[in-house]
Amino acid sequence: MLQSGSADEALTALKQFNSQNAGVFEFPLFTSDTKQHVYEALFDRLNDAPAGRLHAECLVCIRILSREKSGLEVASSERALNTLLCFAGLGPFSEEYEQPLVTIQDTTLVIEAQKCLCNILFNSAVAQRLCGSNSCIEGIVHRLKTYKDPMLIHEIKYFDMRLLFVLTALVQDIRPKLRQTLHGFTYLIEVLDLTLRSAEETGRSLSDEEVDLSCEVLKILFNLTNGVDSVGLDEEEEAHFMRLVSVLHDLLVSQTGSNEKRDLLRSNAVNLLTQMPKESYEELLTPINEVSELTECNPLEYDGKSMEAILSLLDFLDRRLDTPQQSLKDSLAPILHCLCLICRSNRCIRTFCRLKVLPYLRDEVKMLPEDGQTLRNKLCKLFTNSSTEVKTLAADFIFVLCKENVGRFIKYTGFGNAAGLLAQRGLLCGGPSKVVYSSESEDSETEEYGQLKEGVNPVTGRWEEDKPSPMEGMTEEQKEYEAMQLVNKMDQLQRAGVIQPSRISEEGRPVPVEHVLELLEGMNVAPPTTDHNSDSE
Length: 537
Fold this sequence. Notes:
It is a single chain. The protein is an all-alpha fold. It has 3 domains: 182 residues, Leucine-rich Repeat Variant (Alpha Horseshoe), CATH 1.25.10.10; 181 residues, no CATH class; 60 residues, no CATH class. The strands form 3 sheets. It has a 3-stranded antiparallel β-sheet, with no helix packed on it. A two-stranded antiparallel ribbon has the order 4-5. Strands 6-7 form a two-stranded antiparallel ribbon. α10 packs antiparallel against α11.
């Protein structure tokens, strides 16, 4: 019917199929050969003279079928892709003029063709390779230049960006071509800038559509900057990165229609920030004289700079810590990594974050560092998380805020919480930081902390009331006996594989011992008896 029937008969058959399979993603009843014949018939119909509604239904059918990865040989051929590019308004281009040879006025057809291309490119390596050399990339970049046109609807822009994201994610060779040859990096930043200006000029929040479009652009920029050496940039590239971070600042402080959309926007901005050169993080700070709404006592101000974007990042971290996520690593690792980078790179940002995350200790020293609802408490609680990456990044963030000073780190977290990071870095015996920080002191004790300091247990990081010594009243022989009992118990646990006793090496790292007796080396303690009764085996 589709191949040999009339246009009306084909339209009726397609409408019925599309309606019945609108939510279907797999077609087990279709053999590979059947699919090839269906695709050939669909593209034959599309290449006929304009057939109105039939073309739209053909594109819908291609979109539905291309959700399945198998049987895409015909759909991913050069002929089929060029047909879809024509309907999407993305080419092919004439040699004399920088515009498509065929212009489709029906936006419904354009959007459906874009969706078809997204599916096919996602599922077919052949299509990905072909679109790296045909008019697809040039067509999207050409249309990027027209995004100021109010007649260009949001859906077309959005699916352009979806196409570009899929291509830059799956075809690495496209990235340098788009970033350098086609100047796509500049045009994409302009799309973000245009979106922000549009909202600012009308005095409104970013709409959900604008947030979605901005997020797609940020994903593409992430792909384009992935693997770029930020050390060897020339002046022009440095300027592009500085401008991009400035735009990211504006996105971080912008208002959205809902908290969910704002978090989505901040999440993509955070991902991109982790790939920026460290010198560019200065653009996250706005000179206070350029922000007229701030006052002298405004909490957004520090050291003559507006810290609104930094507060937005800390608020995002706090929300992620409070919101249960399916994957804690995916939820927290990017923002923690981002904050570590910017705090290491910029003294002003680091000092401000320290004041917010690690305020001067007062009566809260009576609580365990991991107990409570402050950012410090929540981060310390992560130190014992099952995710190695999350607990390492959480500890690293606080360590950076402490200027990588071991004593200060233990003061805010307790040695028990800090031991993991210190062991990893060979700092269990203390030692200087490998990173040079400013010499300005950023740690002063409050009067309340000074009064409680002597009673703080360095292991737990909490003030504790004086307790009677458990060995009070014991003779030296009794104390030695109890010590030997402890050694014997440790020996039993080691033999059972429950624990692995270690010593601290000169490098400040834990070194496993073969026998618990090695712990007594250098100590004036007699070794335990070697007579093992049945209880010690």
